[in-house]
């Protein structure tokens, strides 16, 4: 049974944590690898270079939106293909285990499932723009 008193806060914790991780990964692509370096990597694995910019935008923008609770359901759903692409194109050749050299697809695949679950669960507590019709404040006050 789902506890309506704590569930919105559990979703909030998951939303903020995954948002922070997306933001971190996007900023690493900007400030460590640089956008040009990220483009080069994407092209080296056979992806269009422009997809690197879209990935950076998805990670930084999506991370901020999740942290703030702005259209979190839609953002979570939109990030699933990004993660599946990372699992297949970025880590697929390295096998399943994340601790394999160059990282396996285990971690981005798990993250894709988490984002799909967040899309199904709703926005949780303290969302700035809830996308579902469930009463947030009533559940948070109870």
UniProtKB/TrEMBL annotation:
Q: Which InterPro entries match?
A: DoxX, DoxX-like_oxidoreductase
The question of whether Transmembrane helix is a record keyword is answered with yes
Instruction: Note the topology in the membrane.
Output: Multi-pass membrane protein
Keywords for the protein's UniProt record, in alphabetical order:
Cell membrane, Membrane, Transmembrane, Transmembrane helix
Q: What parts of the sequence cross the membrane?
A: 12-33, 45-67, 74-96, 108-128
Where in the cell? Cell membrane
Keyword Transmembrane recorded: yes
* Family classification: Belongs to the DoxX family.
Q: What is this protein called?
A: DoxX family protein
User: Which organism is this protein's natural source?
Assistant: Tabrizicola soli
